[in-house]
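Hey L., structure's done. Input below.
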Amino acid sequence: MDDLNLHSPADARDESAHELPSTHSALPQAAAVPNAFAQMGLAKELLAAVHDFNFTQPTDVQWRAIPLALQDNADKPANDLLVSSQTGSGKTAAFLLPVLHTILIERQAVEQKEAKAWALKVEQAKANGEELPKKPRRKNPTDMRHVKPAFPSALVLCPTRELAQQVAKDAIDLVKHCKGLRVACVVGGMPYPLQIARLHNADLVVATPGRLLDFVYSDNTE
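Output:
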């Protein structure tokens, strides 16, 4: 079972990445780049979490995979990657970091759009000589009256409960500086009501296939 392990141990050997586009061979060696995680362009909130672990250099698999997964502009869309690497080489962070970065960027885009719409509403009220609108009170997302349908931004499937719980823990550690970003772990052996409460309003869901299908084919999440 792989763990966060952002800096590979000394005995980490040659990792292999299958189906990686040939561009990875042109990447410089991670050890030659100061603060290489920052050089990748990851969100500052994620860099702060990485810094908390006192890591500045990615492992080989992270250095090869993360830049490819972050190619999300119109000219270079994100790549679908199939990666294989030995246990303890940092695979979990190799896919969690770009996934969480994408979620953050999407959230920021939505927030900016909402801020512009609100500013326009205020300006229109001023122009019409009307009373300025008041922002609605922030609703408690854990209150069942305010629960939103479960539409997570990303899903991570793991074959075992233990691996899913480990991945979810690593994700929670990485989003400690990301305000309002929620991670839910959906696995067997846990009470349905508790998991339903966590599933609603979640941005990232880590699940095992069996329990996920239970939710998909039942009305428990409604």
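The two ends are 34 Å apart (CA to CA). The longest helix spans residues 91-127.

-- N.
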